[in-house]
């Protein structure tokens, strides 16, 4: 599903974020990305949906070589990837239904297919009855559920989550993680950057630790491994 070979990223200010990183992630895996602040985790995540471009090296996502990807092809790549952010990034003037439907409208899906698919994913995340509400009428956990619904409405093969529980209380965080578990059980690859030690230690999935722009640990059934 995702492969990086000898990937380097140097920013214009001279900071080297990735320093020859190599990794392979297979379809259906659930992978945690951990490491100290400034280790390169966010850059690593952004590389996969071409928010950032590698300075050198090769990145392949679902058969697409991002090194050769033209700018006009980036939207096609992103339709195959769901992204969930820490701060939700919902459109405040759109309802729950409209926020989720937007991802299908931009690719000009048939209105009836949009309605059915959106209601199906809202049912999955437990928000079917709140489809007509606006983001500011929802709790933080509910807003993150909308964000997750939006990320999977296109039936992507991979969902990338960047600190998805960072703004949530512990109980709500576990509810969100249960939802990610269910999505993964349906065959979707999940890649999640997190500082949540408790979640990583309890769920025991593949853990990839990044330090200084390099992978320093990659283990299945791993733990968080850092004192926080």
UniProtKB/TrEMBL annotation:
UniProt KW keywords: ATP-binding, Cell cycle, Cell division, Cell membrane, Membrane, Nucleotide-binding, Transport
Range of residues in the leader sequence: none
SUPFAM superfamilies reported for this sequence: P-loop containing nucleoside triphosphate hydrolases
CDD domains recorded: ABC_FtsE
GO molecular function: ATP binding; ATP hydrolysis activity; transmembrane transporter activity
Membrane topology: Peripheral membrane protein
Pfam families the UniProt entry points to: ABC_tran
The keyword Ribonucleoprotein belongs to this UniProt entry's keyword annotation: no
Assembly and interaction partners: Homodimer. Forms a membrane-associated complex with FtsX.
NCBIfam families referenced in this protein's UniProt entry, alphabetically: FtsE
Function: Part of the ABC transporter FtsEX involved in cellular division.
Name used for this protein in its record: Cell division ATP-binding protein FtsE
Organism of provenance: Rummeliibacillus stabekisii
Lineage of the species this protein comes from: Bacteria, Bacillati, Bacillota, Bacilli, Bacillales
């Amino acid at each position: 599903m995702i492969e990086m070979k000898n990937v380097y990223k140097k920013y214009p200010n001279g900071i080297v974020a990735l320093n020859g990183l190599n990794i392979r992630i297979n379809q259906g895996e659930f992978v945690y990305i951990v490491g100290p602040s400034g280790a390169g985790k966010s850059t690593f995540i952004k590389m996969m949906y071409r928010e950032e471009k590698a300075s050198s090296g090769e990145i392949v996502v679902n058969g697409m070589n991002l090194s050769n990807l033209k700018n006009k092809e980036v939207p096609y790549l992103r339709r195959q990837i769901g992204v969930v952010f820490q701060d939700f990034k919902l459109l405040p003037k759109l309802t729950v239904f409209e926020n989720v439907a937007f991802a299908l409208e931009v690719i000009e899906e048939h209105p009836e297919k949009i309605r059915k698919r959106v209601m199906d994913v809202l049912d999955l995340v437990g928000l079917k009855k709140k489809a007509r509400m606006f983001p500011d009428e929802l709790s933080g956990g509910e807003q993150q559920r909308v964000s997750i619904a939006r990320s999977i409405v296109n039936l992507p093969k991979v969902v990338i989550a960047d600190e998805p529980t960072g703004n949530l209380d512990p109980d709500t965080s576990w509810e969100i993680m249960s939802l990610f578990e269910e999505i993964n059980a349906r065959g979707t690859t999940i890649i999640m950057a997190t500082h949540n030690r408790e979640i990583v230690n309890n769920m025991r999935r593949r853990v990839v630790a990044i330090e200084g722009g390099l992978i320093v640990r990659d283990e299945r059934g791993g733990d968080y491994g850092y004192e926080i």
